[in-house]
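Problem statement: downstream parser choked on a complex file, so we are re-checking the raw output for the benzoic acid run. The parser issue turned out to be on our end (a line-ending mismatch), but while we're here, posting the original submission so the record is complete.
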Amino acid sequence: MSTETPTLRLGSTAPDFEADTSNGPIKFHDYIGDSWAILFSHPDDFTPVCTTELGAFAKLEPEFSKRNTKLIGLSASSAEKHRAWAVDIEDVTGAKVGFPIIADPERKIAHLYDMIDYQDATNLDDKGVQLTIRSVFIIDPSKKIRLIMAYPASTGRNSAEVIRVLDSLQLGDKNRITTPINWVRGDDVIVHPSVSNEEAKTLFPKFRIIKPYLRMTPLEVSDP
Ligand code: BEZ
C-alpha cells in the first residue's frame, strides 16, 4: 500500500485498504459491502476527548444501523491497545464499542486519507511522531466519498451532526431536494434548483415559492 496522499474530494472513490482492527483484519470495501460507512479517526488511545467520542458513537450505533450505515474508527496504535481501551470506554461511558477500530500505528491509512495533524505541535506520540486529527468521511454504498470533515485534536465532534448530514444525503439521493441551514429530519426541505415549477407541482404538491430560486416543501419521510 502506498503512503502517498491522493487528493480526496467529494465524489472520489474511498481508497481501499487491508488493516488489522480491534475486531480482526478487514478489507475496507468488503467491510462496507452494500452499506454506507462512517470512517472517523482519533489521535490516540486512552485520551480523554477520544474516549467521550467513541462512547457517543457506540451509543448511537443503532441509529446508524437503521440508516444502513456501518461505523469504523481509526486510531494510531495497535489492535491490542484498542481492545484494552474499549474496556475503559465502556467503564466511562457505559457504551460497548461493537464496531471495529482500525489499528494504524504506522499511519499508513492516516496518510492515505490525509488525516495527519500538521498544525498542532502537541499532537504527537511518545516518539515525537505526528498523530491524527479527527477526520470524518461519509462513504456511500458505491464507495464514493460524500462528506469530509476535519476537526483538530482539541475539539470533540458533534455526533448529531454526522447523523444530520447522513439523513440529508440519503434523502437527497431519493428525492430531488436539498436541505437548508440547520435542517433536521422532519423539517421542510428545498426543491432542487433543477426542478421546474411545473415538475414541482407533481413532485411536491405542497411546495411554496419564497423566491424564484428558493422553493420549500414538506416531505413525507418514514422513520429511518
Ligand atoms: C484527546 O482525545 O483528548 C486528545 C488527543 C490528542 C491530543 C489532544 C487531545
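For whoever reads this later: The longest helix spans residues 159-174.
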